[in-house]
């Protein structure tokens, strides 16, 4: 089983970070997921009737990520945190994309709670996963672009295993290699906040909600946490 680690330099720079790792084993992505279908439909209906809107960059949850992106040299209005981009897309189009049940589940939880989310197919992960600063030698192939290779700038925060980069700009975009599909059976989902003292309870609620969507379609689920006080989790 891989371990997820928060590098000491990242923990020092962002000391209120909390990451929830929701792991599902024996995931069945080709059967109907009615609760996920309902979760997406409810969000879209709430947007349509004006009773709810996704968090935007004026919201403290999103603003914190913009500040963090600038701190490691990324323009967050050009390269947006995933939850910011997803919320903007929902507000503009009135609907979330339908990709696969597992991805749709974390997208719904992410935008509902204003927290970045991602996922990795653990059968395609090599070695352990570190949240760390890039040194500039790493390679990244963006999701949906299997023939492209990028090199993160030195100082950019990334998720990386022993083969390469799994996510650029902390949570902007995931890699093609570890993408989650309907055939992925062993997956870790990631939810993040930079302000655990303010939003830790919200993160816990979101992790519970995601676990609830996954559990009917998995042999086993579990939740682990990463933060400066607990910088490693074996999943």
Q: What would your notes on this structure say?
A:
By secondary structure, this protein is α+β, with helices and mostly antiparallel strands. Helices cover 33% and strands 21% of the residues. The protein has six helices and ten strands. It has a six-stranded mixed sheet with strand order 7-6-5-4-1-10. The protein has a four-stranded antiparallel sheet with strand order 3-8-2-9, covered by helices on one side. A hairpin with a 4-residue loop joins strand 5 and strand 6. Helix 2 (34-49) packs parallel to helix 5 and helix 5 (101-113) packs antiparallel against helix 6. The longest helix is centred in the C-terminal third of the chain and has 19 residues, at 196-214.
Task: Itemize the secondary structure elements and their pairings.
Elements: E1 3-6, H1 8-13, E2 18-25, H2 34-49, H3 60-71, H4 82-93, H5 101-113, E3 117-121, E4 129-133, E5 157-160, E6 165-168, E7 173-174, E8 186-193, H6 196-214, E9 220-226, E10 232-234
Helix pairs in contact: 2-5, 5-6
N-to-C SSE string, H for helix and E for strand: EHEHHHHEEEEEEHEE
Computed over alpha carbons, the radius of gyration is: 17 Å
Instruction: Please give the oligomerization state of what you see.
Output: single chain
Residue-averaged pLDDT, rounded? 98
Reported for the largest beta sheet, the result is: 6 strands, mixed
Helix/strand class: alpha+beta
Instruction: Report the uncertain regions.
Output: none
Number of helical regions: 6
Number of strands: 10
N-end to C-end Cα span: 6 Å
Please give the order of strands in the largest beta sheet.
7-6-5-4-1-10
What amount of the residues lies in strands? 15-25%
Form type: globular
As a percent range, the share of helical residues equals: 25-40%
